[in-house]
Here is the input.
Amino acid sequence: MGVKDQPCTQVKITRLTTFRQKLYDCALKCQKDAQWELCDALLTLGSQPNPAYLSQAPCFHRGWSSVYGAIEDGTQDTDWLFLYLLGLVEPGAGGIQYFALDTSAWVRKSAVTVAERGYVHQATNAVKGGEVSVGYTYSFLTWVTAPRSSWALPVHEQRVKLTESTVDVAVQQVTWLSDQRRTCAGIDIVAADGTYGTSHFLGPLRDQARLGIVVRLAKHRVLRGVPPPRQPQQRGRNRRHGARFAFKDPSTWPAPEEQVRFEDAQWGTVELRRWNHLHEERDWQTPFDVVHARVHLERAKPPDPVWLGWLPPHAILAVTQTPLEARFIWYAFQHRWAIEPQFRFRKQALMWTRPRWLDPAACDRWTVLVDVAFWPLCLARPVVADQPLPWQPPQARAQLTPARVLQSFSRYFPTVGTPAQAPQPRGKSPGWPTGRPRRHRPRCLALKKG
Here is the structure.
């Protein structure tokens, strides 16, 4: 680090320190010191066999029982936290910011005494891509800082309860995002996978002024086009549905409104075709655009095409000057990929689903602490220097992944410091009261959603 870089580096360290102090003061309530040192221990030691091992970190100045006390008895102001994290979203290039939406499962198949468990989809490396298990489903809304990167910063997360559906929770999160950023300049785009490519998700969000949504559509879908104009002397109400548009039947495809072919460094030869104002038969009031994408056309056997649905914002601000064409929609959907390595990193390196808490509320609090631990890694990315292991190739600072920043983050703890207060010893615990009987925890069955 040269002399000219020191003022800039000090500004970035100050920003990181201010961020940590703000979270400590406002986001954490009861057991705030133990919760904060637990986050620091997670950033120092990384993944461990169980949470008790985090008490052995040099930055954790309390006993090992405080690890469980922080989660079981701690409280958090999640409403303030999510608003604060969303306020850290920086203006994007051309006035456009990208967000990714998806769910991840916390499998608790053998936890028969834990309540509110349901059937979840567990992603695996199997040929069919997953299996049904028992546990919790969490819905995450993340800010994607750059395309084709592994940095997806959580700005809102929520556990999907048994009385809710994944799509209903996603609608609440996207509506919250639109309401909080309605006065911001530019537009926001939310990219989501095929789970959300239905009218149940697009319908409630069709009137967003500055929010665009791009989702993947199932390849067996059948949509309807614009109905023909009303004819003279026609009786009855106007027709709601036009010609049939079946994804698997090219004979039903009319001439596309837009067709483009170009070369991409990652996807090779790409061909895009676009049709406007299609809708589902059960929701004729939500028209959206459809993009048919074929990639790697230079290969002898290209992969299957991808279908995308695009729900544009109603008010395309003139400040952006960005044509929302098929190529733009295709690249907007590429931002969705960043949430996949974020799930893998928080499960493997930040041990999100490893603890076996006995209360669903404790699982929620631990999930929030993992979110709090993930954000400092992004803020420390311009500060830390890469410290590769002997078998790891070096990475440039602009290309550092979350795992590499975590690998070097503990070296900067003396510089950043901690806002947590020193522990106050309270003597020896009296232990279990004499004469109180011990009872087994009641068993809870895994429930299906109604």
